Amino acid sequence: MWNALEAQLSDEWDFISDVTIPFDDANEFCPDLAVIPRAESDKNLSAYSPDLIELAVEVVSPGSVRNDYEIKDRAYARRGIPHYIGILTLDTGGLPVDPAARA
Fold it and tell me: Is the whole-model pTM more than 0.90?
């Protein structure tokens, strides 16, 4: 997903992955991929405010369907995150492959 979106981002934006996003005292999420301002990602923090997220992406596995399509979907919307994508199928055919992994 990162590779597919990277060419579409301007220099003002960057990706973070599996970084803590505290929503409130009881909830924090770690989106599989999120787009935030590059100036913020350059700080290389262990947690970022949800107010910075322009796009959150979750790769949905069979065991996380409810969490990703109901709980996170609603939580991201409540926090005003404008774009959320939950993906069950991701075509990886065009992604780079480590030649050593094929052996």
Answer: no
Q: State pLDDT tens for residues 28-51.
A: 999 999 999 999 999 999 999 999
The amino acid at 69: Y
Provide the residue type at 61 as one letter. Answer: S
- pLDDT over threshold 70, residue 11: yes
- The SS3 call for residue 8 is coil
Tokens of 54: 């322009």
Q: Residue 33: helix, strand or coil by DSSP?
A: strand
User: What one-character DSSP code corresponds to residue 64?
Assistant: G
CA-CA distance, 58 to 68, in Å (whole number)? 7
Rounded distance between C-alpha atoms, residue 33 and residue 35, angstroms: 7
